[in-house]
Amino acid sequence: MHSTLSNKRLQQWDELIQLGQVSTVRKEFKALNFKRIPRNQLTNYANIARRIGLPNLILLLLNPIIRSDKKLEQKASLQEKAIYGLGLLRVGAFNEAEKIFNTLDPKKEPQIYFYKASLYINQWHYKKAIPLLKYYIKNPKISNYQKLVGSINLCASYVALKNEQLAEKHIARLYRKLKNSEHKLLLGNLLEIRAQWHSDQGHSAQVIADLELSKELLKMTDEGSQLYITKWQILSRLKSNPTNKKELQQLEDLKQQAIKYKEWELLRDCDFYLSLYQKNKQLLAKVYWGTLFPEYKKRVLKLSGFSLETADFFYWENHDTLTTPETDLVAFDLVAKAPSKLLKSLFFMLTQEFYRPLRLTEIFGVIYPEEFYHPIHSTLKIRRLIHRARKWLSNYTKAIEIKNLRGFYYKLEFSKHLKLKVYKSFPLGAPSFLSQELVTSYSIPKNFFSSKELSKTMKLSQRSAQRLIQKGLQENYLISIGHGKNKKYQIL
Predict the structure, then answer these.
(1) What pLDDT shows up at residue 293?
(2) Distance (Å, rounded) from C-alpha 476 to C-alpha 340?
(3) What pTM value is reported for the model?
(4) What is the pLDDT of residues 240-287, one digit of tens each?
(5) Residues 389 and 451 occupy one common structural domain
(6) Which of 379, 401, 423 is the last residue in one of the domains?
(7) How many distinct structural domains can be found in the chain?
(8) Mean pLDDT, to the nearest integer, of 362-379?
(9) Residues 451/457/458/464 CA torsion (nearest 10 deg)
(10) Range in 112-121, 145-154, 299-308, 455-464 the model is least confident about
(11) How far apart are CA 287 and CA 281, in angstroms?
(12) In sequence order, what are the beta bridge partners of 488?
């Protein structure tokens, strides 16, 4: 791809994005032959992928550079690593993203401060995000607009942590900068944050005023974002009248809107506040056990004021509203019944999140913690494992399904006659097709191996090794890559 032509295309895309024609850019971007993009333009193309919401394409573009098995003439640059880490963050591969960010110097590339802060905010870890946001805002290389965005996140973090004095100070400072500026969306976001602060202070009139103005300023945003303002409006009215059945019903109705627009964190938060206003410990327990993030669990315990006992396991019931535990439900332990360690790990992970579908990357990171995520090979591994799990479930019970959403998200759905056992930590499981003990004792590679290598390592005939491989492929314990003499296999 000629450099001049490449620059012209990037400029056209930049203009289209600014005009809001993101779908046009997405269509053209997906049709690209990535192999023809010059190395010195990769980060520019990756940034376009970031702006149009295609983080997986960031990984496809830069994976051959960041995770190359070969020695490259030019090592991966700081910018390439930073944008690759952002791609991992955006697809939900939090652990690997953090490992990359920890190797980079944000003094040389200050955007890393913001990326890393975003990583922590996505996991409800506001305390870790705050010092990074402070460094980001103070950095002279950051544009004025980027500083405003960083300040919005800083204000939200202080409010989330109930740090009232610092929240008030930073909100007032940012409001003075935004009230007469052209950045109306940022002002709308700030007013929503300020309304939460006013609510904590008991300033009901100011809460209502800020939320009304915020809704007006943000009316051009997507419907899902508007629902959060609706939530705060309902909560502000409930604060003055906690037993108002009409408002409690509106919070229940909002849950259906959250499901419609796939606003899963809003759905979770509605249940949390319903559990508080209805003093419903069973529902609160569902909220507590139904999230992956330890910081959200801490928030639940801190804000509820309930002495919620946290045992080693919990039974997940498939009901919208829980008051007391059902006594006639059939208990089902997916983790214990699964026939292999990999399936046990998969079902353990799928029972850790009740509200939102899990991203494929999140599942991969738990089941294969020592492996780097690859946008093609890792996706294939998890989809094969999901296929295997579905096959086992179909033979065992029709009451439990693994639903797929948009090809990248997975969620357990089960009959209302069941209750699924949820473990706090992963229990010891059974060995898989080639158990860890066999892999270690025979030095079988964790990555890809050929049939000849397996034959030599396990001291089997070539025919016996092929039979073992065929069994593994048929039962979805193995995946294959390549053709003919170059064909390789990997244990799932």
Answers:
(1) 92
(2) 12
(3) 0.81
(4) 899 999 999 999 999 999 999 999 999 999 999 999 999 999 999 999
(5) no
(6) 423
(7) 2
(8) 92
(9) 20
(10) 455-464
(11) 10
(12) 481
